[in-house]
Design brief:
Radius of gyration: 25 Å
Order of helices and strands: HHHHHHHHHEEEEEEEEEEEH
Mean pLDDT: 86
């Protein structure tokens, strides 16, 4: 195994983020139990509170799962949500821990008072067979797999494509959770509020993914204007905001990010080597194009990450013809230095700053 394990780089930003997430989770559970006790004052607390705790944790896990699945398409539809991508893996680990607590409370409460193994008592029905609890158990196993492989070590070991394919299992977990809730909790509920909320959540997620996917397909299907020698026109040089990029599709799904750094332009692949994030939706920080997903950086001059990191991405040659920026669609090898292209002085004053 050539990939070395590196401990999580805990920054103040991550610690504050995690503290806020934990605080919100505790507040959610406390509010759920408090409101329920106030709404049903005649229930026996010693019997009622364990039930409320498992329902609060289960509901919280379901809410977290919806939030996690919504972040991706929201970020594709509007860059205002891009910052949510940075610590999405922390949210995923939080989801697993909440679901695990839910499972422990359920197993202890319903299976911990007999002579049988508590897990068997909960998962196996009298006379054989399994019920909705088994679907929740399978979902928990999937979430465990995703949480255990969320570290960058596994990303580097498996490779971005395999790692991403593995983590698409979150949609399998979502289907299992929806079935678990539908066949379990909702069958004993007479109110239509919970089924309506579950259906609304599923429809909202489906709508977001459909809208984001449609937008991406339209962008990839757009035919770029080309010069006679095949170079692709990406627009007026002055229209690119300073320290930001314009992303252009070259056809076949390939995308190039053209960054403007003051009066010069640089081009590189739009795909971050970390998790395939859209580098062109980030900005230049400390002379490096910075991926908006997890902050991976690439020197705008050669597409290499600053030491001690070793990631590299392809670069592209640029030229300006009549105030129009053109890019050579043939990529350079990852990490190849390129000469910056100067923006004409009459275009420099537009959109700068």
């Amino acid at each position: 195994m050539s990939v070395r394990f590196r401990a999580v780089n805990w920054t103040r930003h991550k610690l504050v983020y995690d503290a806020i997430v934990v605080g919100l989770c505790v507040a959610f559970v406390a509010a759920f139990i408090g409101v329920s006790l106030a709404a049903y004052p005649d229930r026996q607390p010693d019997q009622w509170i364990p039930t409320l705790l498992m329902r609060a944790l289960g509901t919280l896990a379901l809410v977290l799962l919806h939030v996690i699945l919504a972040i991706g398409p929201l970020a594709r539809l509007s860059e205002r949500f891009t910052f949510l991508l940075a610590n999405r893996r922390h949210l995923g680990v939080t989801l697993f821990l909440v679901a695990l607590l839910h499972a422990l409370v359920v197993t202890g409460w319903y299976g911990g008072f007999g002579v049988e193994n508590p897990l068997v008592a909960v998962l196996v029905r009298p006379g054989g067979g399994v019920g909705f609890e088994f679907l929740g158990f399978l979902a928990l196993l999937v979430l465990l797999l995703l949480a255990a492989t969320s570290h960058d070590f596994w990303l580097a070991f498996l490779g971005p494509a395999a790692w991403k394919a593995l983590h698409m299992l979150v949609y399998v977990a979502y289907a299992l959770v929806v079935a678990h809730v539908t066949l379990g909790v909702l069958r004993s509920e007479t109110s239509l509020v919970l089924p309506a909320l579950l259906a609304a959540g599923a429809l909202a997620l489906g709508g977001l993914h459909l809208a984001a996917g449609t937008r991406e397909l339209k962008r990839d299907a757009a035919t770029p204007d080309r010069a006679d020698d095949g170079w692709v026109d990406i627009g007026d040089a002055g229209d690119i905001p300073d320290q930001r990029a314009r992303v252009v599709c070259l056809g076949g799904g390939a995308r190039v990010a053209v960054f403007r750094d003051g009066g010069s332009l640089h081009a590189m692949s739009n795909i971050c080597s970390h998790q395939g994030g859209p580098i062109g939706e980030g900005e230049i920080i400390d002379g490096c194009a910075t991926c908006p997903w997890h902050g991976y950086q690439y020197n705008i001059a050669d597409g290499t990450s600053p030491p001690p990191y070793t990631e590299k991405i392809p670069t592209y040659e640029l030229r300006v013809r009549g105030g129009r920026v053109q890019v050579n669609p043939e990529p350079n090898a990852p990490g190849t230095p390129t000469q910056p292209v100067s923006i004409p002085s009459d275009a420099n004053s537009e959109h700068a700053g």
